[in-house]
Design brief:
This protein is α+β, with helices and mostly antiparallel strands. The protein has one helix at 6-33, and strands at 44-45, 48-49, 79-84, 99-104. The strands form two sheets. The protein has a two-stranded antiparallel ribbon with strand order 1-2. A two-stranded antiparallel ribbon has the order 3-4. Keywords: Signal. Residues 1-30 form the signal peptide.
């Protein structure tokens, strides 16, 4: 039976540690980009607004109050849709998502 020399074993361990470390570094960068709060004062591009300076990000950038009150349901279909995009909710910037609240009136479709 062949045994692995301690030198080869140490090299393999070093490689595994380096691989795991590089994986964590690359993932942490991706997570950092997911929190790009949009700055509506700057021009909008295909991927959304440019990122706001992190030192200027406030709690209000992550709060959207547009869903607190239902909209009027007096139209033909007796429903109303409130939408939240990155224009009104800067925390959604660059994530490729939006949120919506749908209100139905009595007998609404």
């Amino acid at each position: 039976p062949q045994s692995i020399s301690s030198t080869k074993l140490n090299k393999m361990r070093s490689f595994v540690v380096l691989f795991i470390f590089s994986l964590f570094v690359s993932l942490s960068h991706a997570i950092e980009l997911d929190f790009c709060v949009g700055d509506p004062s700057l021009p909008r591009g295909p991927a959304g607004y440019s990122c706001k300076d992190p030192s200027k990000v406030t709690v209000d950038d992550f709060i959207y109050t547009g869903f607190r009150v239902g909209g009027p349901t007096t139209n033909t279909f007796k429903n109303n849709v409130n939408l939240a995009f990155s224009d009104a909710y800067p925390a959604l910037n660059g994530l490729g998502i939006s949120m919506a609240r749908l209100d139905f009136g009595v007998g609404g479709a």
